[in-house]
Amino acid sequence: MKKSLLALTAVIAMVFFGCKENPYINAPGDNTKTEHDTIPTIALPNPVDLEGFTLPEGCLSVYEACHISDTLGSGNTSKEKYYIKGWVRSFDSKHESGMNDYGNGTFFIAATNDGHSDLKMFEAYQVYGKDGKKFTSLDQVAIGDFVVIYGQITNYNGTAETPGKGAAYVYASSNPNFDPQVDPTKVTPDPAGADVPAGTLTVYEAIAVSDSIGAGKTTTDEYYVKGWVRKLDSKHESGVTSYGNGTFYIAPTNDGTTDGITFEAYQVYGKNKQKLTSADQVAIGDFVVIRGKISNYNGTAETVGKGAAYIYYSTNPKW
Questions:
Q1: How far are the Cα atoms of 40, 241, 253, 284 from residue 119, in angstroms, in the given order?
Q2: Which pTM was predicted?
Q3: How far is Cα of residue 64 from the mean position of the Cα atoms in its chain?
Q4: Which fold has domain 62-173?
Q5: Which candidate, 208, 161, 159, 164, places its Cα nearest to that of 182?
Q6: Which has the closest alpha carbon to 299: 177, 178, 167?
Q7: Once rounded to an integer, what is the mean pLDDT over residues 70-94?
Q8: DSSP code at position 180
Q9: 274: how many CB neighbours lie within 10 A of its CB?
């Protein structure tokens, strides 16, 4: 009887403890196991590209990018920059706040779009959008997009990812909202009776000025810039409450069709260069004219902060 119980105990131990180690994932670069290893192998499918999508020469698959990260070792970043292709499979929990606050997205890409390769993903960490410019709307990245990321590869505690804070960007995407088509004639007419000084720039023209001076530069001259308030920055209310300045985005139209083409009114004051006194002095749908210098902040067209620019005119009844 004792022998039977001992045998039964041994069987139970084998069932519960014999496979404690996680299965080995067999993918390009994972060549640390030999044929004598008893750990079961999970074969990952070959990478799948979007049909008709033009890829840069030397573009890496997710597997290859993960292999480079593995060879770097934890805490290290590659000297070279790479193109990395894959399918957007999931968002990081801070993706939305990163997009809204800083114009960068954080999401995971896989080699296929059917879930069969989700065990081996690459993290696009705090990446910017087209041409290294900040994203302007959440819908510019969506689950199921086929994307190409450009940037260095890092190994963060074993996670293969890009360096943060916009050091990498989305080079190309199948998302229809990724690269908004600029049509300078697409504007919502100024409201009747609006005080719009001669020579006031549209959002398109203000962005062109910002692009012309280059990243990190600010114009010497001040400009009037007109547009429709389409989005409030997440720090708009606290900025008004604490410092009397507001931060929001204006677009050429008020119907949402140009929300991917915006100019950032960054930490602006109110009428006559006076501090704003309540957050509701700026609201979605307001038509405004901003006065101040134009800056290029890592590709984002905006005003200089800390009240250096102000709202010259607004249709907001509380303004």
A1: 15, 46, 43, 42
A2: 0.71
A3: 23
A4: OB fold (Dihydrolipoamide Acetyltransferase, E2P) (2.40.50)
A5: 208
A6: 167
A7: 97
A8: P
A9: 12
